[in-house]
UniProtKB/TrEMBL annotation:
This is HEAT repeat-containing protein. Keywords: Signal. It comes from Roseibacillus ishigakijimensis. Residues 1-22 form the signal peptide.
Length: 211
């Protein structure tokens, strides 16, 4: 087995302290059935050694892309500012799911709308209702407008596997951001019929339509 060399920034990151921000995941309350849908690496606190090991393995042989994607998404959930150097690792950006995971990480740190563009653009190219990396990546974002519209458009119709992906998206959002999920429940869970607006009308709009 070849020795694994960590990136130059790795040793500083190994001793970085966990952020107090983004701990909603540990406080959220969801049913055990819902929780079982969520990938374990999105639930467990980020392990810096595992993340940097996965980065090193990817640097040396392009392996463990999916594992690394989950770890980057956990860093996004925790809003870990100390992993910003990952955004500058060019080799990570050459792999689609890692590039999109890094976009999610950047969005959760910065909240800039433009950062969402590559994730939403990729989802728009994919089969309606399919279980895809891009819908998984959207599920960890603390963003409730464009991502919700994209979610509803993607799941206008789906099959068994896609249906589970839809439930997993909802369970992940509810687990990570319970208060915001409760506020947006109608927009997320309302039945989708075609044609119809991708976001249900608000109360004022509903009142005006009823006049």
């Amino acid at each position: 087995m070849k020795p694994i060399f960590l990136p130059a920034f790795a040793f500083a990151l190994l001793f970085a302290s966990p952020s107090a921000v983004g701990q909603e995941a540990e406080r959220a309350e969801v049913s055990q059935t819902e929780r079982r849908l969520i990938h374990p690496l999105l639930v467990a606190p980020l392990d810096p050694e595992k993340l940097l090991q996965a980065v090193a393995e990817h640097e040396s042989n392009d392996q463990n892309n999916d594992h690394l994607m989950w770890l980057i998404l956990r860093a996004a959930i925790e809003k870990r500012q100390d992993y910003r150097p990952l955004l500058e690792v060019k080799k990570l950006r050459k792999t689609q799911n890692l590039r999109l995971a890094l976009a999610a990480y950047r969005y959760n740190l910065e909240g800039r709308e433009k950062v969402l563009d590559p994730i939403l653009a990729q989802l728009a190219t994919e089969e309606i209702g399919a279980d895809t990396d891009s819908i998984v990546i959207l599920s960890v974002l603390n963003e409730w407008d464009r991502s919700v519209r994209a979610f509803r458009k993607h799941f206008i119709r789906t099959d068994g596997t896609g249906g589970e992906a839809k439930r997993t998206f909802l369970a992940t959002r509810a687990f990570l951001y319970p208060e915001k999920y409760a506020e947006m429940r109608d927009a997320l869970e309302a039945p989708i019929k075609w044609p119809q607006p991708l976001m249900p009308a608000g109360k004022e709009e509903q009142d005006s339509l009823g006049k």
